[in-house]
Each structure stands twice: as structure tokens, then as C-alpha cells.
Amino acid sequence: MRHGRGLAGALRHRPGAWLVDPVQHRRDLPDRDGRGVLIGAVNAFLITKLNVAPFIATLGTLYVCRGAAMLFSDGRTFPNLNGNPEYGSDTFRLIGAGDVLGLPISIWMLIVVALIAAYIARRTPLGRYMYAVGGNERGAALSGVKVNRIKFFVYMFSGLCAALVGLIVSSQLVASHPATGQAFELNAIAAAVLGGTSMSGGRGRIGGTIVGAFVIGVLSDGLVMMGVSSFWQTVIKGLVIIAAVVVDQAQQKLQARVALQAEAAGK
Q: CA angle, corner 200, sides to 49 and 162, nearest 5?
């Protein structure tokens, strides 16, 4: 599922050329975000209907979409996406550079999406079903949960979020290139793991993931300010992910041991 962010981001950057035609861009905005949702649906179909392992399915579609983005754009960069005031299309850059009440618009978008996701996850039956499917898919199915529907929703929502990220980044750069989001999937995995999301499923919080994203951002900025090579930055991020997973597994084993001891003491 994590790779879905990278693949949708790659495809999302390719259509940056839509701003070259300022008359069409307003109608194309929902269409471009819809493509992210469609990619998520493709992932869900591969996983639920064709029984492809999630990691393989999302990794495969990542490369397919990244390659398609390169083919459709011929590997070109689409610069100067400022729009044209005559057509009322000069507001695209505000998504990445504008602010409301002193906060960047991109931060407001993060807040809105995070609140929606947190509400769904913690306050609705759908959210409880998602945790159930992640923790014990077979048990959830036997309990009457529509597992495939839950997976479709999760992957499609992930695709939508990835498309929004592509939109924000293109606006910040005022340019678009199909290779812009190549390292985003690594950051997404690192943020989720550092935020307490279990790689085995069934555990994680939106707030924790946001904190993890901030940690990764501070780490990346700190490494840049220290003059650390970009190659070493990737190595360090990979080590951080491994360390977080090791700590998570150790914590789960400790919790299971404590639960067994408590159960034995109760008897």
C-alpha cells in the first residue's frame, strides 16, 4: 500500500502539462485526482481479485505508472506553470505558495485530510473494520466484514492522497516532471513506521503518522544543513526504517509475553 503513494505521485506529475492549456485546467483538476483514485482501485483489484501480494502489486504498478509517465511526457519537464491571468488560471501556484490565516494552504489541506482520516479511523464502523482487517483478515471475514470492500476503500483513499501530494509539489515547484516523486515512497514508509504503524497491520494512528512525517522532515533538513551527501541520506533513512521495525517487533513480543504472564497469573 505504501508504494501506491509513489506510483500515484509519479503519474500525478506527468499530467502537470495540463496547465499548459489554461482553459482546460479547472475541469481537469478533479480528473487528475480521479486518476489517483483509479490507480488505488487497480491496486485493490490486483490484491483482492487476482490474489497478488500487496507489496508486489503496489511495487509493480509503481513502475508501470512511472514508466508510463516518462513515455507520455518523453521525460520532459513542464516549466513555468503559472497559468494565464486572462483565463483566470494563475491561481495554481497558490496551492503550494499561498497562505490562509498565516498558514500555507498545503498545511490546511493536510489538516483537513488528517481530520477526515482520523474521524473515519476512530469514530466510524468503517475505521473499526479497517483495523480488524489489518489485524486479522481471516477473523474479520468470518465476523461478516466485507474485506474486499474495505481494501478497495483504503487503496483508493491512499491513491487520492498521493494525487493531492503530486498537485501540491507541482504547485510548489511551478513545474512538473514525471520523476519528481521517486523518493516519496521511502519517506511515506518511514513516517508511518516511526509513527507507530505496525508493518504486520492492525495498529497505527493518523496523529502518530503525522509526527513520524515531521521527524523524517526534520531529519532530512538536518542532514542537508550538515552537508551530508544525498546518497548517505537514503542510507540513513533506510536504517531508521529498519530500526523502527525492529523496535516495533520487540515491543509486540514483549506485550504478548506480558499478556501471557498476566493470563497465567489469573489462573
A: 65
**Integer Cα distance of 120 and 41 in angstroms:** 19
| Measured torsion, CA atoms of residues 79, 84, 88, 91, in degrees rounded to the nearest 10 | 40
Q: Compute the distance between CA of residue 1 and CA of residue 185 in angstroms, rounded to an integer.
A: 10
Residues shown for the chain: 267
Q: Which residues, at least 6 apart from 181, have a Cβ–Cβ distance to it below 8 Å?
A: 5, 6, 9, 10, 12, 13, 165, 166, 169
What is the SS3 assignment for 239? helix
Neighbours of 263 (CB within 10 A): 9
Which grid cell sits at 91?
A: 491561481
Q: How far is CA 90 from the centre of its chain?
A: 27
Query: pTM of the entire structure?
Result: 0.81
The answer to whether the CB of 83 falls within 8 A of the CB of 72 is: no
Q: Name 222's Cβ contacts closer than 8 Å, sequence gap at least 6.
A: none
pLDDT digits 0-9 by tens, 198-251:
877 788 889 999 999 998 889 888 988 998 888 888 888 888 888 888 888 888
Which candidate, 1, 34, 6, places its Cα nearest to that of 18?
34
